[in-house]
Amino acid sequence: EFTEFRKERGNMLLSRKNQLLLEFSFWNEPVPREGPNIYELRSYQLRPGTMIEWGNYWARAIRFRQDNNEAVGGFFSQIGQLYMVHHLWAYKDLQTREDIRNAAWNKPGWDELVYYTVPLIQEMESRIMIPLKISPLQ
């Protein structure tokens, strides 16, 4: 039965990729949250050779984004597509997301850190996710 399921599933897949990620030491460890929340997964493909520089900047930048407990986790790839960074953020809703992100620009130093990290990025993507009822991250 499982073999048949795998065969049917294979006919529906267009692509699949996996990554083994490690957590940045300067981020908080992801912990269960009360909800309801939405989550934003921001993924960055960095230029090869820039991971240490990115980490050094974000070790300082993360302090600008913890006032509202929105920083869930920061991860980087070890296996799979290399030089990939993922940031996971929690927000009550899309309006709260916009308000928190805009407020960061009013903090002295945030604009400078963004200025220095943007050239390290080759590609970036943002995805909004809604947790399932069984998720500890509500």
TrEMBL record:
Domain NIPSNAP: from-to ranges: 39-136
Residue intervals passing through the bilayer: none
Tree of life domain: Eukaryota
One cellular-component annotation, GO: mitochondrion
Entry's Gene Ontology BP terms: mitophagy
Family: Belongs to the NipSnap family.
The protein's name in its UniProt record: NIPS2 protein
Species of provenance: Oreotrochilus melanogaster
Gene: Nipsnap2
